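Write out the 3D structure for:
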Amino acid sequence: MGELHVNMNTTLDGVIQANGGPTEQDGDFEYAGWERPFWDAESGDQVNADVEASDALLLGRTTYDIFRAYWPGKTDEIGRVFDRVPKYVASRGTPELSWDASTQVTDGAAEVRALRERHEQIHTWGSANLLQTLFREALVDQVNLWVCPVVLGHGKKLFPDGTAATRFQQVEPPRSFPAGVVLLRYRCLEGPPQTGETVDAADL
């Protein structure tokens, strides 16, 4: 069975809203584009490598519309991959599937589970609602978080209230990049979060 990897850009306080700039949905967000000062050529190369490792995309409708307005026809590494691979749009509405190789997914639990059997590595840049479904149904294998050194204080969160309790294991040491973004990779583990006793300083 293949894997589903979640890729998200987030602030230190977990905000994911309008990270790349103003959108139709978030045009009035005060800090739209907050991630841009923290990227550089080295982190860009790593994003390219991660994208090239995928053989399918799973996107929420809003993210799909943003990508569909920008990526088709782009000739850089990401653009070529995005144009080539199958794109699955999680939506119960009627998305405009004008981007080549796009298919609607209406049952996030059953259909995404089937997609994991068809693809080696699916990547998603989903909305908070999509992520909640994926975590609730235990469909996520790995989370790749690009953490930017900024706190916004408000905005849509990566893990809003209601997200399924989940525990993770670090895949590799955190990797920092020159402009300030830090990449964290975690594998999802089975079972709820564990608890333990506080260690007394005298016992150290």
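The longest strand covers residues 3-11.
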